[in-house]
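Operator note (shift B, R.M.): manual run for Alpha-1,4 glucan phosphorylase requested after the automated queue skipped it. Running by hand, logging everything below so the morning shift can see what happened. Input copied straight from the record, untouched. If output looks odd, do not overwrite the archive copy; leave it for review.
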Amino acid sequence: MRTDKKDESKNYRKGEPARETEESGSLYDLLQQYGCGPIQFTSEDGLYERHLIFDNVSSLKSAGSRERFEAAARSVRDVLSQRWVETEAMYERKNPKRVYYLSMEFLIGRSLSNNITNLLLNPIVKQLVEKKKIDPIEFLEQEPDAGLGNGGLGRLAACFLDSLATMQLPAMGYGLRYEYGIFRQSIKDGWQEEQPDNWLRRPDPWEVERLSEAVEVKLNASFELSGGSLRVIPGQPSSLLGIPFDRPIVGFGGKTINTLRLWSTAVPNYFDFAKFSGGDFVAALAGTLAGESLTRVLYPDDSTSLGQGLRFMQEYFLVACSLADLVRRFRRGNADWNQLPAKVAIQMNDTHPSLAVPELMRILLDEEQLEWEQAWDLTQRTLAYTNHTLLPEALEKWPVAWFEILQPRLLEIIYEINRRFLDEVRRRFPGDEERIARVSLVEEGAGRKIRMANLAIVGSHSTNGVAAIHSNLLRTITVRDLAEMFPERFNNKTNGVTPRRWLHLANPALSRIITEAIGDGWITDLGQLRKLQPMAEDRGFQEAFLRAKGEAKSAFADWLKATTGQGVDPDSIFDCQVKRIHEYKRQLLNVLRIIVLYNRLRDDPGLDVRPRTFFFAGKAAPAYRLAKVIIKLINNLAGTIDGDPAVAGRLKVVFLPDYCVSLAERLIPASDVSNQISTAGYEASGTSNMKFMMNGALTLGTRDGATIEMAEEAGEENFFLFGLTADQVVGGSGWYDPWWHYENEPETRAALDRIASDAFSRYEPGVFRPIGDALLKNGDFYRHLADLASYLEADRRLCDLYSNPQEWARKAILNVAGSGKFSSDRTIAEYAADIWGVEPCPVR
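Run finished. Output pasted below as returned.
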């Protein structure tokens, strides 16, 4: 072994990461560095070959791409395993305060390439790929995206775990191991169709099942099969088992490897042998089917009471398993319950884990026999809550009846919390019964409900929003009464994304020129991108930036052609809007813009315009009918434009089905324009806006969410902002009339008339009538027509700028330079200092 590698290994054990160089050694050397010396190899790629042969019992020649992927993944896991064990052992020895991050979603994407990058294994893997003549694209495509999330909430949680590990903070993520994820989206005749996302169909090489650490979750009801449907039997107690599956979360440089623990359901003693032997197979398995279905799917269709009940049960199962596990960890090193807030910080990611408040109280009161005042003090000082939305439908409210059937003890605790809380409100605001009704944890009415956001705020010591405008609106409008009660608990933590995945890994061309210009320190300190500001004026760097963007666009166009057969022009403007399909995110406003541009070209075929490709991607909730109609309109518009020779080569619309992390990693680096066009005051923060910004796309957007702060960092003159402000939207309920825009703006009227005339639905007349109803008949709640003219004007300015490549590059580089604030490392540092009170715990 070379001397320089030995020295490097010693540095690594002192906490310094092994550096990537063209002369990095073998996998054997890496295992020495990571403390796995006893394993012997016959060649530098023997670890890979061992897994290829012995795990799958197949010859090297007959192994397929999937077997090769699994062998590579297990080889990488071997490299990190001892450091993973050492990380947990260090936490046990030092007993630091630990963060436990509870989230219903963790949209982690594929793990192989990310773990290779964070372990600095790229040179060795490159050698292996070349030696074994492996097609890296085909190889990486064998790993499905983990079906553990839907959108920004879950991707933020994944970015936070990356930052926690990179910053060597003792932390653990808790989620659910969904067998099928949310759903796999396909498009048929323009409509979204949902199929099972069976991402666990093949063994997942990253997860480790921990049967010995299973948790029992007790319910006050059981289930039976009646008439082909599952029926709840109240008052007949039953149990579920939470089986933990652990996944490694690798910090950059491999110094710390934290854990994401996902819970899967199992059912003890539900198999009725007598019924099965008698031939009643379904009845014999009814309880098992009911219990084990709990973690089948992320976010079951909540348009029915049964679907809502399943979601409620998922949330309680997550909380019950996670709290039992973290309490077990706390007990191993602590005997004094007064130390709980000094050793444990529990972060509730949105309202989904809000049941942690009464569940922690139940543990402290019933199992540990603490007095109420002490238990309540410990609960509040241990728990913290992040709010991610201002939408009323997203501030969950669960029927009291479900608590009565499934967890009556939690309901008793909630009622007592509420009684004591309302007594305090009455003391502070005597006679204000309207305020009491607004802040109560119980919403009165024909069907009484528990307000989960109120429960989370009252039961924790911190409530944070995720962008400055969002935190202000949360405090002054959404939960104003509670903020007046507890002003010291409210704070802002603007979101961020990990630069390791979203720039360093996803955009190697741009990453390379940045590193050549300012060094690689930006990978763990994104604020260093400020050093690029002078480079924005440098003609040579501008040209290098444009080449990097062109490389990413060509790579995306090639991938799209190879995987879907659809061709796009990489020299066109790549104009993107990729996010969950929802009225407030206003994909429909984007569609109206495109129809106006289409009408202009039809009216004046000689119009000189730059070729443009408009990309859409995102999923609609299965029960969200209007969102599905919007997807249908996008696809029909795409087909109409493709079939019109008057606009051939100048306009193209592409809907990319089944949007996921892996698709985003390809599209975002290739994008020229980022549409962030939510109705002002409705987007909490956004994170795709940050990813586009740090990859050099220019933002065409409203003053909403974190886009406001992004424009402050890079300069509003380098953004294309338009539309109503949040104050104007809030104040517009009295004066806004969509019919005024229809009658007074000819292009608006022409666009709506074209939709209404079935120009995009010749064979399905009337299919888009709900669009016209939403925009005109029903009052256009999200103010699409109020912002359309301003949107078109900003779009004109954007196109004018694109005709000047050097000036476009200058503004794009300034956007990259200004994106340093939006690293999840900065966000996590603020959480750690202001909310959690945790410090790094380096692994030796």
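Quick read of the result: The first strand starts at residue 98 and ends at 102. The two ends are 23 Å apart (CA to CA).
Leaving this for review. - R.M.
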